[in-house]
Amino acid sequence: MKELAKLIQNSEYTVVLTGAGTSTASGIPDFRGPKGLWKQVDPIYALSVDAFYSDTERFYEFFFNMLSEFSQCKPNDAHFAIAELEKRGVIKSVITQNIDELHQRAGSKNVLEIHGTSYRGICLKCGHKQPLTPSDTLPRCTKCNGLIRPLVVLFGDPMPQDYLKAEKEAYKADLLIVVGSSLQVSPACYLPLRAKKVAILNLEPTPFDSQAAFVSHKKAEEALPKLLEFLDLEAV
């Protein structure tokens, strides 16, 4: 982490990009790892636009089970360390591929959710947005009783406005720190190409390791608190 600390100290604009590996220590499984969620469930039948419209009840059965698991999880030391880095002005923003809102619960403020959030939905009839909570019935709009769709980027969806903002942040970054992402999901995997320098902290190798200024395969929840020490920062 000492080398990463030096890169941060020499950077005027540092941004963090996080993936599912950031949340595994909180009890949320990743998607593409050896024990990832997509090893158990075909994503096309679970979280796709086709799945939502062709069998909405089955879609929500899976989605609400996932949301129930998310709700029981708490931020881990990686989330808290990232929040502390933002609080101290060391990083400018957090771009996340995750849909669990654990960054916000840890205290991060400037979070760009490029894959959306599991905790809110939008009415397909009137456009009203409202919180989503697990239920045995299909979620209905509190304004017009229309069907609610989660504000998650499903397979087959276009990217949201937060992705355009994330691209701008990546272009501005002297250093982009990738935490817990396999960098295999398009278009998020192209964000490292926008930054001047890239640092990668991920358990498994990524396609961008050879281009990175720093690479570590340590656990994020163990490595990031160490980074605070090298930067002479103490979490408060």
Question: What would you say this structure looks like, in words?
Answer:
This protein is an alpha/beta fold and 236 residues long. The chain folds into two domains: 1-26 and 75-115 and 159-236, Rossmann fold; 29-72 and 117-152, SIR2/SIRT2 'Small Domain' (2-Layer Sandwich), CATH 3.30.1600.10. The chain contains nine helices and nine strands. It has helices at residues 2-9, 43-46, 49-54, 56-72, 77-87, 102-106, 161-172, 191-194, 220-230, and strands at residues 14-18, 93-96, 111-113, 116-123, 129-131, 148-152, 175-179, 197-201, 214-216. A six-stranded parallel sheet has the order 3-2-1-7-8-9, with helices on both faces. The chain has a three-stranded antiparallel sheet with strand order 5-4-6, with no helix packed on it. Helix 5 packs parallel to helix 9 (220-230). The longest helix is centred in the first third of the chain and has 17 residues, at 56-72. The protein is elongated, with a radius of gyration of 18 Å.
Element layout with pairings:
Layout: H1 2-9, E1 14-18, H2 43-46, H3 49-54, H4 56-72, H5 77-87, E2 93-96, H6 102-106, E3 111-113, E4 116-123, E5 129-131, E6 148-152, H7 161-172, E7 175-179, H8 191-194, E8 197-201, E9 214-216, H9 220-230
Parallel strand pairs: 1-2, 1-7, 2-3, 7-8, 8-9
Antiparallel strand pairs: 4-5, 4-6
Helix pairs in contact: 5-9
**Beta-strand fraction estimate:** 15-25%
The strand line-up of the biggest sheet is: 3-2-1-7-8-9
Shape: elongated
The level-1 CATH class of the largest domain: Alpha Beta
